[in-house]
Design goal:
about 300 residues, mainly alpha, three-stranded mixed sheet, 9 helices, about 10% strand, elongated
């Protein structure tokens, strides 16, 4: 059942990443840590991602007009797809590049205490943001398995922020390990390796998000359970002989277009047929209000 996802998870992630990005870059400038530069880039990308998601949400609420008669709902799907690509191309790519550069030109981290302080602060903020996102996600699950909820969700904000925050927590853990191992063994290569691992984490998460966002952008139908229920609603009508065609497509998390070709009893008059069609629309929308546009075509050929 698609509902508008609360923006609390997006806003909490936005403010957390913005504050953390500044502190990470300050720490990277002081210590010379490659992993910290990667983490700073990661936070900047995450901040811009939240801005793009909020922009997509705002655009998707625009009412239909002459240019977009079916509305702007797919703006959200487009911008979530762009966000997924940014995580891969900028976040993952630059982190891997920074790591390789550090391996080619290794340098011992200066003042590692600053790294630990920033990483601890970042983990506190990102961990809090992740908990908020996970709680919001759990509200949507309704007892479904985790991955099934991801693949069946029609609202990308359900999982994009969750995966971003998970990547943040994992990245911070890897960065901490890289700094600590480098200091403990007096080996600067650990820092570069940590940066590459962070980039690979972002790349893997991006691939998952791109796949899901692309599927939504291309258009997904209502669930088989909903389709079967709608079929039952229609067939209970005494004047309906058969359903020749039933097609649906999500325009946004809150709106589905439904088109039907229905074979009615041949004895049904035009006037009574119009009444039955309106009754079918009313019955469907009463149970599933997000079917906001329903087109029913009588087909007795």
């Amino acid at each position: 059942h698609p509902l508008a996802s609360p923006n609390i998870a997006i806003y909490s992630a936005l403010f957390a990443n913005l504050a953390i990005a500044v502190t990470k870059f300050v720490a990277a400038a002081i210590t010379g840590s490659s992993a910290m530069v990667s983490e700073g880039i990661h936070s900047v990308v995450d901040t811009s991602n939240e801005v793009l998601l909020l922009f997509g949400l705002k655009r998707s609420k625009k009412p239909p007009d002459e240019k977009r008669p079916f509305g702007y709902g797919r703006e959200l799907y487009f911008w979530s797809f762009i966000v997924s690509l940014l995580i891969f191309s900028i976040g993952g790519g630059i982190s891997i590049y920074e790591g390789i550069t550090h391996l080619q030109h290794p340098e011992i981290i200066k003042n590692p205490l600053w790294n630990y302080v920033v990483l601890a602060i970042a983990l506190l903020f990102d961990g809090t943001s992740f908990i908020i996102a996970f709680k919001e996600f759990n509200k949507r699950r309704n007892g479904q398995p985790f991955w099934q909820t991801i693949t069946s969700s029609k609202d990308p904000t359900d999982y994009v922020v969750l995966f971003e925050d998970a990547a943040d927590v994992l990245g911070l853990t890897v960065a901490f390990a890289g700094v600590w191992l480098g200091q403990y063994f007096h080996n600067p290569y650990f820092d570069g390796i940590a940066s590459i691992i962070i980039g690979l984490i972002l790349a893997c998460i991006s691939i998952v998000l791109v796949r899901e966002s692309y599927s939504l952008l291309m258009g997904e139908a209502a669930s088989p359970e909903v389709i079967n229920d709608i079929t039952a609603i229609i067939k209970i009508k005494a004047d309906v002989n058969n359903i020749k065609s039933l097609r649906s497509i999500f325009l946004s998390p809150e709106e589905i277009v439904l088109t039907l070709q229905i074979r009615f009893n041949e004895s049904l008059s035009l006037h009574d047929g119009c009444i039955v069609i309106e009754e079918i629309k009313k019955d469907i929308q009463q149970k599933y209000p997000y079917f906001k546009q329903i087109a029913i075509e009588p087909d007795n050929n």
